[in-house]
Amino acid sequence: MGSENEIYRIDSERLRATLDASSEIGRFETGLKRLALTDEDKEMRDLFVSWGREAGFDVKVDAVGNIFIRREGIDPSLPPVMMGSHLDTTIRGGRYDGILGVLSGLEVLRSLEDQGIQTQRSIEVVDWSDEEGARFNTSMIGSFAFTGKLGIEEIYAKTDAAGKRFVDELERIGYRGDAPVGGRPVDSCIELHIEQGPELDEEGLDIGLVTGSYSVRGFRLAFEGETSHVGPTPMDRRRNALAAAGYMIAAVNDIGLKHAPEGGKTTCARIDVWPNLYGIVPSKAELSIDYRHPEEEKVEVMRRELEEALDYATDRARVTAKTIATWRFGDNDFDAEMVDEMRKLAPRITSRTKEMLSQAGHDAYTLAGIAPTVMIFTPCKGGITHNTAEDIDFDRTIPGVELLLNLVVSRANRSV
Ligand SMILES: [Zn+2]
Predict the structure, then answer these.
(1) What distance in Å separates the CA atoms of residue 165 and residue 167, rounded to the nearest whole number?
(2) CATH class of residue range 215-329
């Protein structure tokens, strides 16, 4: 076991080579297209698993395709410390979103092994299955399953745009594993992730100590009107579902702009319209609305404003609306003790740090519901992400990975 005062270092050239190898799989323009359960995802998973086995670690795959690479602790009966993120990308994704977290976790395990550092608890690095939700329309599938927030049968039945089922695709790529999904104690979780915003990069900082997250809510509305002819039907007799969605979209954006000075954000990211044909007043529109704010009470204020906007939209367009799906995340706080430990360790690695809140959704939010959890952010150039132009400054990434290593060791060796 290392002494209290030692700061451990990683092998940065090996991490660079690992990231470079990942950047070749599913290459798309300057980024990646590596959707969950595709051939590219399989190729990356295979490589990740082979790296784990070559280093002599135990590798397990559970029934939804989560991959766990484990370095055994002195007392294997103690719950493990987990580091995890995701290796899948969106349709036009970057080379680092999620990937950096998983491959940094692997580098942590390799560094511990190289340097002969023993830990009391076992340490696992996890590739959470299908985090992006870009293919089966549900994000964080793997961590939701692990924490019991989504049932396995429900996940298996999900289909992509071509009608292919999750379970069949999982089976096809060979990652329907035999380890049970969740149901085992976890000591703690640490997720390293690129910031996905511009703050660290623009302020010349290297590590974001993530103390908590934005409260995120969302819902999907179905507007129901009636089809009619776009010519003869008088304006005041129409029941135009698309018009209602239009009033709503503008109002949602205005609400976001109103709360922007305090960090509020709103988005309509998807709309589906029926029959979506020339000459016909649309009878149905489905609209997804996302809203988020650093303060939970303000999310509630935004919710009331969205409801008022919805009343106006339905009255004006003479349609009805019902909520067909809702979601929320970011309500589980990160662990105060772990945040404190991070605050102590970070200045010993770099002075270029700041505390911040996470704004995007992450597997860590889900895991915070079952175990003490915290996140570490590293800078990404211009905050560009979910984009093939996503990029990092490698030298400014190392301090965050070293914080991950030292935090994991301190956590895995703390007295019971
Ligand atoms: Zn991500």
Answers:
(1) 5
(2) alpha beta
